[in-house]
Structures are given as C-alpha cells and as structure tokens.
What does this fold into?
Amino acid sequence: MSCCAAGTESAADLDRLGSDGPSAEEMWVSSRPLGNGLRQVDLIVPGVHCGACIALIERELPKTPGIDHARVNLSTRRVSVVFTGQGGDGQAEEVLGSLGERLQSLGYPAHLPGGADETGDPAFRELLKALAVAGFASMNVMLLSVSVWSGAEAATRDLFHWISALIAAPALAYSGRIFFRSAWGALKHGRANMDVPITLGVLLAYAISLHETITHGEHAYFDASVTLLFFLLAGRTLDHMMRERARSAVRNLVRLSPRGAMVIREDGSRDYLSLDEIEPGMRLAIAPGDRIPVDGRVVSGRSDMDFAVVNGESAPQRVEPGALAPAGTLNLTGALVLEATRNAKTSFLAEMVSMMEAAESGRAGYRRLADRASSIYAPVVHLLALGTFIGWMVVSGDWRMAMMTAVAVLIITCPCALGLAVPVVQVVAAGRLFEHGIMVKDGSAMERLAETDRVVFDKTGTLTRGKPQLVNSAAIDPEHLALAARIASSSRHPLSKALAAHDRPERDLAEFATTETPGEGVVATTPRGDVYRLGRANFALDGPGQESRADDASSQVILSRNGRFVEVFLFSDQLRSGAAAAIARLSSLGIGSEILSGDREAPVHALADDLGVKDFTAGVRPRGKVDRLRALASDGGKPLMVGDGLNDAPALSAAHVSMAPASAADVGRTAADFVFLHDSLEAVPLAVEVSRKAGKLIRQNFGLAILYNVIAVPVAVLGYATPLIAALAMSSSSVIVVLNSLRLRRKAEVEAFAQARAGQDENAEPAAAQLTGSAGMQASS
It folds into this structure.
C-alpha cells in the first residue's frame, strides 16, 4: 500500500504519540504466550503508511536482541512482535523496553490497542473536514481563475490572484496538514515516504503561484494547488473507507464480547469483574440476553443459545450442563452458571479476531512485489522530477515551466494504484469468505490456495462427521464395554468419545493410569500391573495370530490385555454434508482428490467408492501423511491438506496450504491456514474459487497500474500534464483499481456462496462445541 493512499492518525493517536508510549510492564501484561519460550505483543503504530514502512519495521525490529520477528498489518496499523523471555527474570522487560525505544528511533511511536475513541472514526472525520475545506477552496479559486482565463486586465488579474492566494493559504494549511505531518515525521528520522513528494508538489505549486502574483505575472496556479489537494484527499478518503470496511468485520466481532461478567465466589457472593480479570475456573452467572464473555462449560441451568457467530445458523441450540459455550454466543432464554475454561485473550472470539486481523498481514509473492515497488518509489520519483526540471531548463530556459513540469511529475507518478493492487483485493476476498464462515489466517494463504492442484483429505472428522456410533454393542461383554469406555474417557478422538459415552460410573472399576499416543491409541496400566491397550489393531495386539475379527467396512478399535485380544468395537460414521458435492466441484476446477486415513482398508475403500475418489491410502500414520505431502511437492505438486485431528497437525503444516473445520483439535486449527466454521465441506471448493478469482483480479490490477505509469509518466515528463491534470490522473487510477477489486462482490459471486451454503445440514451441531475443547488422542483418523 502506498503512502498516497494511506490513512491518517486520529487526534487520540496523536495525543498518545506525544507521550513516551507504553512501558515494558504494560506491554508484558498485554502479551500472550505462544509456547517454546516465545510471547507475542500487539502494538498500534499509527505512523505506518505504506509498503516501505512495513518493510522497514519488519526488517529492523528483529535486529533488536530478544525479538524473534515482527509482522505489520497495514489495515489495522498493528505491529505483532514475537519475543523471548519469561516474566520475573528481567529479560522480557529489557526486550520490551528496547522494543519501545527502537520503534521511537525509527519514527513510529506506538501505543497498546484499546483506549482510542471507539464512539466513531476520528480519522475519517478529519479526512472529511479536510476534504470539505479543500473542495470549498478549490471551487472558489476555480471561479476566480475562470475570470483570469477570460482575459481580465492586469490590475483585475492581480486582484483575483491575491484573493486566490488568501483563500488557498489557510486551505493548504488546514487540509494539507495530513500530508505535511507525515512527510515531516519521515524527514525528521532521515527517511522519505510517499507523502514527501506530495508535500513538495503542493507547496511548490503554491510558492510558484505566489511568486507570479508578487511579480505581476500572467499565470498563477493556486487552483492547481488546492484542487490537487482536493483530489489527493478524495483518493485518501476512498482508501480509508475501504480499509474501514475491512476493519469493521473485526470490530463487529470485538463488540460481541461484553465488558465483563458477574463472578460467583466460593462463598456465594457475586462480584462484577472486567473481561481481563476473568480467569479459567471462575464461575460466571449468565442471565438471559447476556453474551458469553469467555469460553466456558455450562455447570447448571438450561437455555437456548444463539450460535450464529460460530456456525452462521439463526436457529437457537439447546444447551444443558456439560455443554460448551464459546465467547460471543448469546444466551437467549434461561439463566446459566458457566465455568470459564479460557481467559479473554485465548477465547474463541479472540482467536477469530486474530485470524481476521492476520488475513492481510501475509507477505505473499504479489504483496512482496508491490511492497518492493513502493519502497523504491520515493528516490526514483525525486530523481525523475529533478531530471525533468534540469531537462526543461536546458531545452527552454524557462524555470517556471520547468518547475511546474517537475511538480506534475511528482504528482502523476504516485503509485497509488500499484499500492492498492494487492491489499484491496485481499481485504474484499477475506471479508467475503468471512461472511460465509471461512476464516483466513494469512493473506498469503489465498495466493497459495489459488495455486493448489490436489486436495488431500483426512477421513474421520473431515470427510465424515467424526461422531461415530458403536454398532456391535449387543455382541460385546458388558464388563469389556465398561472397561473400554473408562479408558476411552481420557481421549478426545471421535471413536474414543463414542465409546466413552457407554461409561457407567456406578460400576466399581479399578483405577489406572493412562497415556496416549496420537494416531495409535491409549495405554492403561492398573495397580496390579496389567496393561490394557485401546486403539489400532497393530498397536493393541502383540505377536501373530491376533486378528481384529472385523471384515466389514466399519471402523474398529481393539481392546487388549497384556497384548492379547479382549474385544473389538465396531463403529459407523456419517458422511459430512457437502462432501460428495465438494469433491465433484473440485474435479470441475481441475483439482484431484485423495484420501489419507489411519483407518483400516475396508472402511476407507467404502468411503472412497461413495465419494468417487480413486486415490486413497488406509492405515497411514501421521508421519506417512507428511511423507506423502512432501512427495507430491517434490513432483511439482501444490497440495491442499484438509484435516482435523492432533495427528493431522504435522501434515497441515507440511502442506502447500491447509484447511481445517472448526471442530478440529486446537493444534489442528492453529496449524491450518483456513478454518471453516460451517459443517459443509463445500467450504473447500468455495475458498479455492474465491482465491483464484482474487489472484486474477490482483494480476489485472497490476496490469492496470503498469499501463497507467507507462502512459502517464512520459506525458508528464514531456510537459503535456499540468499539476491539476496529474492529480486527476493519479486519483482516477486508484479509483479504477478499487472498482476492479470490488468485482469480487458481484451478484454472481453472492449466488455462488448462497448455493454453497444451501448444501449444509441445517441440523448439524454447532462447531463451537469442539472449538472450546482441548486436543486429544487421534486413534484411527
């Protein structure tokens, strides 16, 4: 994004910029752990305007000891910094102190998110006021200029010029401060941004006009200077509106979270605590009409709840004790007591906000290309303008003509269209996907998804609902069933949860210690030393001759004692809605599909036949999935991995691009590039189609931007464009790029989305029930 189309700081931001910024302690409190000794803190940096700003911050901050990397989101002007250090050892405080100092030294004072004026948009109000003043001044100066152009005599002409100068001066001071402030901030720290040539162009046009007025010259360009400012502000306001549209989805999500909640103390007393004070384990009183503040589990009470924020369904869902309720959902009918399972920073709502904010942050190939082009703009355009001035001075000897031509070059070469080419499309595409329940965690993921040529599906929980039913319970010894159910209760795998539903606590069963191996099963050791294993046949059984005793297409789990067969449990699973349609749609897009599953050959083969998938592999371990994806990549393929389990996380990370349902384990959602909230697998081809269309529009935008510069630059250098014409051309190029990007929102696209949603199962349970759960064993997916 170029500075020419950047936004502006609000008054609240400017007040905070005058302070010393947040302290190391404040940043530490606002940071969150990422694991492996890393933490992340998010800072608002209003001074970020363009690709050059982004490149500078992302390049310089990691040079500070203790900072791992930094990522800048231009739409939200948020810098996410990952750093090392633990609380209390002094290291983190030192790193964060250096972070604040480094941002100040680079000319980007920062403050923590929050605390700004949330009752409106002060930046937008400032832009509108500046635009109105510039528009009023330009119309009046233009009227006076018409009189001069009509042949006003010397005294009258001078009078009109002086009146124009008096009108233009306060208008430039008031409306131009948006550009002047940014340019001065850059120059003060020894760098140039795109507002520097804009400032030069506006001030030079006014200065030349004032000189002409003082020396009784025939030509003055006050109309050009104020009209130029008007068109620049019009383009900037348009860009701000586009970015506000992107931010509005994030703000709407944030507003779903209440300020706090009523906490029930151990003695029965109740205190209202703010959202940041609520910790896991606290019990919360949720009245009808309240939104859930943090992820939690219903302890008592029954109610209907609106899960639309999670699954998009307007129909309320009934919740009872034991049900999971994610942050942001709405309690409709009954009073509930909720036990918090996460704090506000790690809740479902925070996760969704984080993914939305990250959608434009990726440094994809297209974005890096635009950023590199924008970063070299300032020195190139200054040299070009200087060369134009020198050339016209040599050819004509008229310094006024040379100066005005150079000013036109400064203006017309502003690469607003190039800067807008990528982010506007990414914002529109990410917003469109979000409206239909598909979360984009990284803008670069859309570019990679557009390139995919093969989709690799997991089976259990992905192609199927992951809610299997035990089908041979009548043939199972009740003691064996109770024992297996008690062992399975320690796991979150779909087969384990189906088996654990048969647990009967009233039975007096020996206590045992359990451990699990993702993708294999659970081991339970009794105090007497007996070892029970529950999971895959080759995991549970030792030695030859131990057969599974299942010859149908059902999934199976084996229970063994000391390596000897005890019981087999057979399960059937329902196909996820939209699975067959999704694979057919992918095929029509020229994308092949295959299934990699840890389940047995028979059920995988049966599922592949039902879906029309020719390529499938059964009995695949987690490592085998990674190896298969790497093999596809080594052959030049760009596979998309769609999986949901703990054992799919390595494969999701290894794939060219990845996607997971909202019902996936936490680690699976974290590893995936896309998360779809609805039940239907139609989300997969839908995301591919939108990403491909987005890529096509980005390429078109690049073409339009390059075409504009190929035509505009020679016209300006040769003296055929006045500053006024240059301003019109520059603004028009930005408008064309934005309008082309908005084609992604055409009616045809809306109908495609609606058709995709129509294939979903309206009776599907909300994905929120899984979103707030923890990752567990993946025995045979």
In short: The mean pLDDT is 77. The longest helix spans residues 683-717.
